[in-house]
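Exercise 3.2. Students should predict the tertiary structure of the chain below and write it as structure tokens, then compare their answer with the key that follows.

Predict this chain's 3D structure.
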Amino acid sequence: MTAKDQGPAERAAVPPRAEWPEVGKRSEGGVVLTDVVLATFRLNARLMEAAQGLAANGGITAAWWQVLGGVLDEPRSVADAGRIMGVSRQAVQRIADLLVERGLAEYRPNPAHRRAKLLACTEAGYWAIRQISLAQGPWTTELAKAVDVDDLRTTLSTLQTLITKLEEA
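Answer key:
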């Protein structure tokens, strides 16, 4: 039986607080990074709300938009699209099947792998993305006015560095 299968009574008892290990002192960088992580969680929630509204312009959801975005430039396997997006193959597979069912994407043969078909955007999928882009452009332009472009570049570079470090772990 795994811990996941166990009920509360079967899990290890929580020791009294007096017996809890001490939390080590964190560096200034560690404290600031924690604040960055928490702000990123909040930013992600607001961006997902905005993405849902923007995606509605194309008649799709934010999750569908994300998966279509992973195959706009070229067909990819579901696993490759997931790696680009930073999500599991299984999560992409569920959405890919819905996109194919609705005619926004299609599966194509993969010359490199017989079983792992390639997911490709259809004209209907490109049209949905174009409709979203018509709303997204003005939205990002307006939002970007609130932040200096050099600060945005620094933020992007910092986020990319953190992503790389986390993916190496």
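Discussion points: Strands lie at 76-77, 105-108, 118-121. The helical segments are 28-56, 62-69, 78-85, 89-101, 123-144, 149-168.
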